[in-house]
Amino acid sequence: MKNIAKKANTMYLLEKYNIKATKKFGQNFLIDLNVIQKIVACTPIDQQTCVIEIGPGIGALTEQLSYQAGHVVSYEIDTRLKDVLNESLSECLNVDIIFQDFLTVDLKKIVADYKKQYTKVSIVANLPYYITSDILEHIITSQADIDSLHVMVQKEVALKLTDPSYRSPLTLMIESVGKSSLDMTISQNVFSPAPRVDSAILSIVFEKTYNPLLTKVLKCAFTQKRKTIYNNLKSLFLDKTEEILNACDIDLKKRPEELKIEDYQKLTHYL
Ligand code: SAM
């Protein structure tokens, strides 16, 4: 089907297959073709790019991605969408739909396979908001050779994740692999059902491979945000904590959000 996101087409598909969006899977379908085309146009994907999409829904974004990318592979958790996707994307021959929870995908392996055929691999998605952080963490910590990511998230979340003065384990993980930006804001009116908040496109350009030891240090450092870094890290470095913090030139009384990514990277050397 051409232009799935046009309101009449979306309504036709949802009615024909009796699909009701479910909160359980964070389903808010995009119903504005212009907005979808703008989202795709602001990504660097081209015919040499393989796009990995999370949650195609009824295929509105997938279709537009298929026109710009060399190949699209979309992971969908909701098997109720099988028949509708078979019909809506029947003409998009460069699209593969895989019914699998994205959080269980071995991203490093599949990206390595796609890199044999395509120069670039990018992730593009209108994310299910209930697992935004889990998905971003899954992608970053996978160490997959991804070039860039462009995902729709809640505007508040995109603002936090791109605010250089805000630090959380996730922002520090992102900072350790590349550069993030907020590329575009999107009104809640272009979804069905409409979410309660506005959305934004968060992009990450990957420059470095993730160091898995960082997860251990960050999770421990942020166990209790109000505690000092010394108190939080005691469970990891035991009686060596003071010595290690001194060797890294880190003030024992600092709170976890006061440390920079470089400080955390130094700490990983002591694991
Ligand atoms: N891409 C469509 C669009 O823009 O209209 C749908 C986006 S909707 C916000 C999120 C989609 O992610 C839904 O289709 C939902 O079923 C799917 N989803 C939710 N959790 C998932 C998971 N763990 N793995 C794969 N897909 C998931």
What does this structure look like?
This protein is α/β, with parallel strands linked by helices. The chain is built from 12 helices and 9 strands. The chain has helices at 7-16, 33-41, 60-68, 82-88, 107-114, 132-141, 155-161, 169-177, 213-221, 229-237, 241-247, 261-268, and strands at 29-30, 49-54, 71-76, 95-99, 120-126, 148-154, 178-186, 191-192, 199-206. It has a 7-stranded mixed beta sheet. A two-stranded antiparallel sheet has the order 1-8. Helix 10 (229-237) packs across helix 11. The site of S-adenosylmethionine (SAM) has 22 residues, from strand 1, helix 3 and strand 3.
* Radius of gyration over C-alpha positions, nearest whole angstrom: 20 Å
Low-pLDDT residue spans: none
The description of the largest β-sheet is: 7 strands, mixed
Query: How much helicity do the residues have?
Result: 25-40%
Structural class: alpha/beta
Domain tally: 2
| Beta-strand residue percentage | 15-25%
Ligand inventory reads: S-adenosylmethionine
Number of helices: 12
Q: How many β-strand stretches? A: 9
Topology order in helix (H) and strand (E) letters: HEHEHEHEHEHEHHEEEHHHH
CATH architecture of the largest domain: 3-Layer(aba) Sandwich
CATH superfamily of the largest domain: Vaccinia Virus protein VP39
The largest beta-sheet arranges its strands as 4-3-2-5-6-9-7
C-alpha termini separation: 54 Å
Q: Roughly what is the average pLDDT, rounded to an integer? A: 97
Q: What is the CATH domain class of the largest domain? A: Alpha Beta
